[in-house]
Amino acid sequence: MGLLSEGTPLSWEETKKYTQHVREHGITQFINIYKRLRDRQGDVLKWGDEVEYVVVKFFDDGREAKVCLRAEELLRILNEREHANPEGVKSLWRPEYGAYMIEGTPGKPYGGLLAHFNVVEANMRHRREEVSELLQPDEAVMSITSFPRLGCINFTHPPTKPTPDRGATRSLFFPDEAVFPGHPRFLTLSRNIRERRGEKVSINIPVYKDKYTEIPVDSYSNPTMPDHVYMDAMGFGMGCCCLQLTFQACNISEARTLYDQLTPLCPIMLALTAASPLHRGFITDVDCRWNIISASVDCRTEEERGLKPLKNNKFVIKKSRYDSIDCYLSPQGEKYNDIPVIYDKADYKRLVDNGIDPLLAQHIAHLFIRDSVSLFSEKIYLNDEEDTESFENIQSTNWQTMRFKPPPPHSTIGWRVEFRPCEVQITDFENAAIVCFIVLMTRVILSYQLDFLIPISKVDENMQRAQKRNAAKEEKFWFRKDITTQVSPPEANECCKTGSINCDMKNCDMFVEMTLNEIINGKEGEFPGLIPLIKSYLTGMDVDADTHCTIQQYLQFIQKRASGEILTTASWIRNFVREHPEYKFDSKVTEHINYDLLNRIRLIQTGKISCPELLGDNTKSKTKDSVPTALTNDCL
Ligand code: ADP
Ligand code: MG
Ligand code: MG
């Protein structure tokens, strides 16, 4: 979940005294990074994925499944191995919000060879096996976006009870003991977000109305939103899992371009990877975690949410600190920043006075409208020439669809961009396919100099559409009609010219609404489609037969998900519950249904059973454990 600095956490009352201090020094630290590294050039493509997992314990006798609060214990062992052999381990493990969650990344980032696409899945499989070896036979490590009965009575093992009248979270449903105990950051954030907001977070998600659905209006519901599943803790969002990836750009300008160009793809990829229809034991009417996680860390006060006139706060702020980005960063993006971006004028001026251009200054100043909500007493007074922790404090708690990452101090790492919207899929095959698809998209964008930009307001609209039930099949999304630019090479134009795409711009709208299928697979005569663009890019590249085969399998899988030929994870899960013999058409995911669902997922993830509705004829690719010798024309 980002920065993990050690130390003694401060209460909100104490943190509050230092918010302006952190802001001032954080901005100074960014200015210093920028001055030092703005001209850094020549970094090569490197990239890596992050997969989050839930540890689940199965009780076969009673047919129940619980989240297993053993993450800390597992991480201790996994991290010991890393410390003993930092260069040699194949995977790195980090804590996440839940005491039942772990996050795994490859031991080293991948590089710019096509052949690297053929080791991603093997590495993911290795990660799963590495953890599985530490588990009991009745436990499993599972890449599921939401644990279906999170927050239901007895959802943890060992059993825990929520403490609504005390502790950090004060939830009716989510006990503090389900929060990762090994690092103070997580409970501190939960407490400080609640205290800053002035009340518990309030997450309300429409229930999926089935034939016999009744949501009782009682002390466990929100009386003002009767047809909604009510959740009141950070854990309902941050306790979900996701799939992220980070790429290194050759310089700051390429990073800014990628940040912008990938932004319109965020809602598209959210819809394509939708995997979380079940929350707190209910089938909901959404397919994704996004709005839940956004509300789960919404630390805005009533004034900031516009419910009361501003008195103690500076701004009315439209979004939670976890949401889609608010402004583009590249010169091409500027004109599409159609929603006023809020920032403190003095912060902005200081950035500009220090030689930072207005667009980047706006981005940084906007990040810094948020207060620090997790501060350690040892990390208040820092050397702004050397340290970046005050900057990272705010940067790492702006959880947005994209993240623009400056090089860390004293490292060989360059300017990077993180792609953060995707929900995590059940199998390594699916996760690897999605990751490789996005990395290929970055290469297509850069080499064909494509332009995907649409107004930020339309990206916001797409984010909401992406989460609706069955959005992948039924929704339409705003997309740019002509994605070639004046500098796009002829191949791109060829590819885009499948019909009248080069139409006279005066007579057509620049932005059109298309289905996921049309965006990914193309629309005859109107839009080339992302997969055909990737295929055209790959033509003429030379790669070993196995890698070629893997890439083709991944692309075919993405095509099928987008066309609806195979189901999204969310649709598959929804169907599983609704077709379960014990389902009463009351929107409830009972203990037994939960157990059977997770058991089925467990069999699918290990390849013990196939699942053509979800995966087509794929179970795993011809992926390899190590990269074969590169062919000459294999460079991305
Ligand atoms: P976060 O900011 O989410 O905490 P990390 O900095 O831990 O992310 O890294 C996330 C991903 O970045 C990992 O998959 C890792 O392999 C990858 N990564 C590491 N070094 C680089 C690099 N130089 N360029 C691009 N990605 C990298
Ligand atoms: Mg994470
Ligand atoms: Mg990340």
From TrEMBL:
Keywords: ATP-binding, Glutathione biosynthesis, Ligase, Nucleotide-binding. GO terms for molecular function: ATP binding; glutamate-cysteine ligase activity. One of its GO terms (cellular component) is glutamate-cysteine ligase complex. It catalyses: L-cysteine + L-glutamate + ATP = gamma-L-glutamyl-L-cysteine + ADP + phosphate + H(+). It is an enzyme of class 6 (ligase). SUPFAM superfamilies: Glutamine synthetase/guanido kinase (SSF55931). GO terms for biological process: glutathione biosynthetic process. Its EC number is 6.3.2.2. The keyword Ligase applies. It comes from the Eukaryota. Belongs to the glutamate--cysteine ligase type 3 family. This is Glutamate--cysteine ligase.
